[in-house]
Specification:
CATH architecture: 2-Layer Sandwich
Strand order of the largest sheet: 3-2-1-4-5
Strand content: 5-15%
Number of domains: 1
CATH class: Alpha Beta
InterPro entries: NT_sf (IPR043519)
Structural class: alpha/beta
Distance between the termini: 42 Å
CATH topology: Beta Polymerase, domain 2
Largest sheet: 5 strands, mixed
Length: 174
């Protein structure tokens, strides 16, 4: 991304200024600057905003046909949230190279929205197998989307998004 943006800017300004701008844009979107901000507890998101933005992302993901599974891990899947929490979510694309590339653009869209809305999103695009291998086995994942019920092949226990909403409202929204 740095190279593409730098080359684009090099037509209208010195290349090194374009590189600085490109690197800054790349870090803000792909480096998940908002997540880092919240992790060092410099941020303070209120529960209602976090909940509302999570619902909005859920609704957008339902419309994205290139995403087969969207699954969340971390403290939320343990029923814990605090004002410096983020959402650890993995997007698993439908089969096929074209779906993979479309999923990458969905990821870019979600990261850009998260940056501008100050929503603490920790999102990656992996296979379900890889996600299962690297994520903690002590967490019951929250299923945002699972078109073919694939996650049942990897996890004994799953939390539906509706159950997550009930739990979050009961614990954190007054």
């Amino acid at each position: 991304m740095d190279v593409a943006i730098t080359l684009s800017f090099s037509f209208i300004m010195p290349w090194w200024i374009g590189l600085i701008i490109a690197h800054t844009v790349n870090y803000c979107i792909n480096g998940q600057a908002i997540c880092v901000f919240y992790h060092i507890q410099a941020g303070n998101i209120i529960a209602q905003k976090f909940y509302d933005d999570t619902i909005k992302m859920y609704n957008r993901l339902q419309k994205d046909s290139c995403i087969a599974v969207a699954i969340s891990y971390g403290s939320l899947s343990k029923g814990k949230w605090h004002n410096s929490s983020d959402i650890d979510i993995r997007f698993i694309p439908q089969k096929g190279e074209w779906n993979f590339w479309k999923a990458c653009f969905v990821g870019l869209r979600e990261r850009a929205l998260a940056f501008f809305k100050k929503y603490p999103l920790d999102m990656y695009i992996f296979s379900l197998k890889h996600s299962h291998e690297v994520m903690s086995k002590n967490e019951m994942p929250i299923i945002f989307k699972d078109v073919n019920d694939e996650s049942k092949n990897y996890y004994q226990e799953l939390m539906s998004f509706d159950d997550f909403k009930i739990m979050f409202k009961k614990k954190y929204l007054k």
